[in-house]
Amino acid sequence: MAGSFDVWDYVVLAVVLTISAAIGVYYRLTGGQQKTTAEYLLADRSMPVMPVAFSLMASFMSAVTLLGVSMENYQYGTQFVVINLAYVLATPAAAYLILPVFYRLKTASVYEYLEARFGFATRLYASLAFSLQMILYMGIVLYAPALALEAVTGLNLVFSIIAVGVVCTFYATLGGMKAVLITDVFQSILMFACIFAIIICAGIKAGGLAPIWETAREGGRLEFFNFSVDPTTRHSWFTQIIGGAATYLSIYGVNQTQVQRLLAVRSLRESAKSLWWSMPILIVLSITTCFSGLCIYFYYENCDPLLEGRINSRDQLLPLFVVDTMGHLPGMAGLFVSGIFSGSLSTISSAISSLAAVTVEDYIKPTLAWRGHQQLNDAKYAYYSKLLSVIYGTVCIGLAFLAGTLGGVLQASLSIFGIIGGPLLGLFTLGMYIKWANQKGALAGLTLSLAFSFWMGFGQPRPPIPTLPLNAENCPAHQLTHVAEIFVSQPILSNMEQKVANQETHYFYLYRISYMWYSVLGFLITFLMGCICSWIFERLHWDNNDRIYTDCSRTIIKYELFVPPVAKRLRHHQMPMVVVTATSSEINIGSATPSVGDAESPQFQKTIKNTIGPETVPVKAVKKDFCDPDSGKGSMDMISEVGQDEIAHTHL
């Protein structure tokens, strides 16, 4: 049963899409006009805190999330909302442990870190996994809400896909990261307006929010204190806190889409502020979206729309509620559709920008270097980034149409987003925390983890998800579906009875584990197997961790590759040193190159202090082979101990 989209609804939707496109045009014509990769991909690292904070939230809360979270609370209860506590607990780890590592490297691609830490093979492996994940996800984020809206509002599916796909590609290509960030702010406001309109409307019809809460309690929807330690329990405090934290860190800590935004501000301090400010914004939208599910349950308590046959999926509950309660108000359906499409616009434009950055930094530049070609100038790279944005936008639209023919693969593709995130988080954690980790060990751990995660996530057969009781007693008899008639004529199993019934069918245990543990298990397998395999490969002399050192003698560590606490501990155990090349071309200390004994003489100490500053401590004369780990070339150097924060190189 579809509603109708009237003229005012189309006007509202057109205004929203026009404003989004105009923002892209504005940033194309102002500032540096997107002529450099620094401006196009990282907004010249000059964005204020709040736009980045809103953008971080908007990229995370897609249209699929808005539709799915409301349905979750309607059908399964409110235990899911506990995940917001995980956001609070995980934010410090992302802000003060992971983020400083990426910010110090000043890279447009987070996967450049993996090359510096492990090698190019690891960088390429992880980058390809991310690219595949985001390309599939883009098409689904565009297709799923368009399908739901077509079934309920009558808005043409083809029009929805093309309009949203073209507009987000347009402003992301023209305006670069600045346009993406500012449109995310505008679209965030629309998302809030959409959800708050639903809550206000339900509150008016119920005579307040208290009746909605009471109805949810009577219907068994209120559940906040499930402390089950059973891994097969779909949602509990442990799944939401531990699994939610792993999911949050895999997105806000090491995902290219989010880190690219965090690098668009002026300083590390402001970057951390953006992350902290995004947390309450995300939590408010998450909680209100959860409550909107209870509002929908209040309205359809005695006649479930799916059992009645009005919709094909409960993901369509949110738009159906808007049509039923606000469809008579001019432009309200258009405002709602704009809010849902804003979730798609923000997510897709973010994906387009991140994929363009990854393709330029991880594929084009290394390929040119490998083939011995001269690197292109920055303007050329900016041009290729824009071209790639157009290509990825076109691919997104094509995949959205293709998603309609994929059937069951649709849900599988959505699961990829979580299944890949955990192993990648484990890979970055391995590099940032474990000194002895090496490339072959990291690749072995990542491969094993991805194989296990895909097996666990897509293995069949899988048990049905137990649902809370749904009612169709007050539906008109002539509209009831056959399934609804069965529900009405027979007692509905309770949640616990359904769970026991599912377990008695003897499904394979791994397939019954809650999806919230996927990221956690993927993370642990990558990390633990990476540690074990790295230790084995080093013992067998199959690989080493030479890349973390600046010299062939494995003396000076690249501390910037580790999280601050680990870097501080490494500095404490091994004081940083300044490399003093023993040549007399720049400072006249005698006709002969000084020996180790000469280096500790008062005259040589005074010469060095005059050269590299009065704060330098006495030279500790040690002969070392200083080399580039990639080239293997070295020279005899003498090492001088200096301050705690950086390594200075002075030629004598």
Automatic annotation (TrEMBL):
Transmembrane stretches in the record are: 12-29, 49-69, 81-103, 124-145, 157-177, 189-213, 237-254, 275-300, 335-360, 381-403, 409-434, 441-458, 515-537
Protein's UniProt keywords contain Cell wall biogenesis/degradation: no
Cell compartments where the protein resides: Cell membrane
Reaction equations catalysed: iodide(out) + 2 Na(+)(out) = iodide(in) + 2 Na(+)(in)
**Protein origin, superkingdom:** Eukaryota
- Asked if the keyword Cell membrane belongs to this entry, the reply reads yes
User: What topology does the record note for this protein and the membrane?
Assistant: Multi-pass membrane protein
Q: Which UniProt keywords apply?
A: Cell membrane, Glycoprotein, Ion transport, Membrane, Sodium, Sodium transport, Transmembrane, Transmembrane helix, Transport
User: Which InterPro entries does the UniProt record give?
Assistant: Na/Glc_symporter_sf, Na/solute_symporter, Na/solute_symporter_CS, Sodium:Solute_Symporter_SSF
Entry GO MF terms: monoatomic ion transmembrane transporter activity; symporter activity
Q: Which GO terms describe its biological process?
A: inorganic ion transmembrane transport; sodium ion transport
What's a GO cellular component annotated to this UniProt protein?
Answer: plasma membrane
Similarity section: Belongs to the sodium:solute symporter (SSF) (TC 2.A.21) family.
Protein name, entry field: Sodium-dependent multivitamin transporter
Organism from which the protein derives: Glossina brevipalpis
Lineage here is: Eukaryota, Metazoa, Ecdysozoa, Arthropoda, Hexapoda
